[in-house]
Amino acid sequence: MNTSRSRRAFTLIELLVVIAIIAILAAILFPVFAQAKAAAKKTVDMSNIKELTLAAEMFKNDHDGNYPKGWFNDEVGGEQTGQPDPFWGWDSMLMPYCKNKGIYQSPLDSESFMRGLWNQPTDHFHTNPGWVDQGEIGNRVTEDDIPASYRLNLSNYPNGPWSSLNESSLDKPAEAILFSPSRPGLDNFNWHQIATWEDDHGKVCIDYTVNTQYDRNSAISKNPTAAQRAQGMANYGFSDGHAKTLNWRKTWTRTDVDTTKAGQTVTPNFWRQNFGGWDDRCNYREGDGR
User: Fold this and answer.
1) 12-62 and 90-98 are packed helices; what angle lies between their axes, rounded to 10 degrees?
2) Structural domain boundaries in the chain
3) Of 152, 269, 275, 270, which Cα lies nearest the Cα of 211?
4) Core-most of 22, 211, 267, 287, by most CB within 10 Å?
5) How far is Cα 32 from Cα 104, in angstroms, rounded to an integer?
């Protein structure tokens, strides 16, 4: 009786064919996985900014129709909260409604860092009224480590970061940007806010592409051309509580007829409905190019 067994191994050609098939499948699937990962990040970013707009809505309902100030939310009153320095930015004001610092961090944001401007243990902790000095902050600064992926748009605020914006002053809250994606900004000043009336460092009406991450999907230049800006896509939160993905140029969409401010013709847009705000030095005119 023949007890030998027939054994058959893979030939070299068969192994090469299998490897080639695996390589082809990997080449097909890896881009799909990358696209799915990018889409998931965009979804999280949209969810974050939506949560912030809803938190601002709840804050507004609790404070006589006033949105939080960009900064200086220190005085006690209908539009303020009595929060001490340095925890008086809009992000700290919304924290009780968000309950999660992770909402302030966009997975699409590879540039911005923690907001905390008070990083030194020798900085002092103050309370108002009276600007009472409670001594050095020390380890308490860790409470201010809120991520800085988003900025509050102060363009419609009547007195910059020193005043609140009441909902009654917005004729079209559904067409008023409240939150925009952030980047560290000019000289890495990681401010809480953005405003289209600023003229600092000669950045009139272009400042937003320095402070705003107008394109969350690709490498960003701090001095982009108009064509580069026109290609940028990002998520924006609006004053009525909704969020939307917009091309940068679309954020300048006309929302009403032209009006006159200080002898100049100006165009209301998603960034701005109210003209004549604090230290007003920049007025958008349709056709200027963005």
Assistant:
1) 100
2) 14-266
3) 152
4) 211
5) 28
